[in-house]
Amino acid sequence: MAFLEVSSLHKSYRIGAATLSVLRGLDLLVEKGEMLAIVGASGVGKSTLLHLLGGLDTLDEGTIQIGHADVGSLPDADIVAFRNAHVGFVFQFHHLLPEFSALENAEMPLRIARRPLPESRLQAKALLGRVGLGDRLTHRPGMLSGGEQQRVAIARALVMHPSLLLADEPTGDLDEHTADDLHLLIREMHREHGLTSVIATHNPRLASACDRVLRLADGRLWAA
Ligand SMILES: Nc1ncnc2c1ncn2[C@@H]1O[C@H](COP(=O)(O)OP(=O)(O)OP(=O)(O)O)[C@@H](O)[C@H]1O
Ligand SMILES: [Mg+2]
C-alpha cells in the first residue's frame, strides 16, 4: 500500500456568490520514502493541495489517507495531533517568530508538545548543527540571511521527527546559488530522516532533484 493515497479530491473556494473550483477529482499515490515534486502554473492549486495533505484546510469531497490516518475525516483535535506528530512543513516564507532565537524557533514544536526543555534544546541544537547553523543559535531571524532563515525552518520542520515533509516553494525567495545549496540539504534530510516528501515548486532544478515530478493542471495531477 502507498504511504500517501489521495482519491477523487475536490476543493472549491466560495467568494461571495462565486465558486472557484480548484481541485477536481485529484488522485495521487506516493510511496514511502519517495520525494515527489509538484509543478504547475501559478494559481493551479499546489498550495491548496499541500494544505489539504497537511490537514491545514478541509476538503469538500474525496479521501486523503496518510499512513494509517484518514486525514480528511479526522476530527479537528485529532488533526492537530496528527499534524504535530507526523507532518513537517516548510513554506516559501519561513514564518519564523521574529522575537525568538534560531534555537528557540527550532525547538518550538517540541515546547508546544510539552517535551522537557533540556531534551528539546539538545535535539534542536543537533539539528541546527546539521543544517549548518551551529554557530547561529542565538541569532534572531532578522539577523540571519534568507538562506539561513530557511535552514532554521527546515530544522523546525524536522525536530518532531515527522514521517511526511510538505514543502511549498521552499526556495522561491532565494538566489540561485543559495537555492541550490538548500535543494541539496532538503534531499539529504529527506534521506537521513527516512521522509516521504511532497514539494511544490516552480524551480526546475528542485523538481529534477526529486524522484518524480507531477504537473497540476485542470484540478488534477498529470505526468510531467
Ligand atoms: N482561501 C482562499 N479563498 C479563496 N480563494 C483562494 C484561497 N486560497 C487560494 N485561493 C485561490 O485558489 C487558486 C489556487 O491557489 P493556490 O495558492 O493553491 O495556487 P498555487 O498553485 O499554489 O499558486 P502559486 O504557484 O502562485 O503559489 C488561486 O486561484 C487562488 O486565488
Ligand atoms: Mg502556492
Question: What would your notes on this structure say?
Answer:
This protein has one domain (32-59, 74-223): Rossmann fold, CATH 3.40.50.300. The mean pLDDT is 96. The strands form two sheets. It has a six-stranded mixed beta sheet with strand order 6-7-8-3-9-10. A four-stranded antiparallel beta sheet has the order 2-1-4-5, covered by helices on one side. The chain has 224 residues and is of the alpha/beta class. 35% of the residues lie in helices and 28% in strands. It is globular, with a radius of gyration of 17 Å. It binds adenosine-5'-triphosphate (ATP) and magnesium ion. Adenosine-5'-triphosphate binds next to strand 1, strand 2 and helix 1.
Task: Provide the fold topology.
Blueprint: E1 4-15, E2 18-30, E3 35-39, H1 46-53, E4 61-66, E5 69-70, H2 76-86, E6 87-90, H3 102-112, H4 117-130, H5 146-158, E7 164-168, H6 176-192, E8 196-200, H7 204-208, E9 212-217, E10 220-223
Parallel strand pairs: 3-8, 3-9, 6-7, 7-8
Antiparallel strand pairs: 1-2, 1-4, 4-5, 9-10
Residues 13, 15, 20, 22, 40, 42-48 line the site of adenosine-5'-triphosphate.
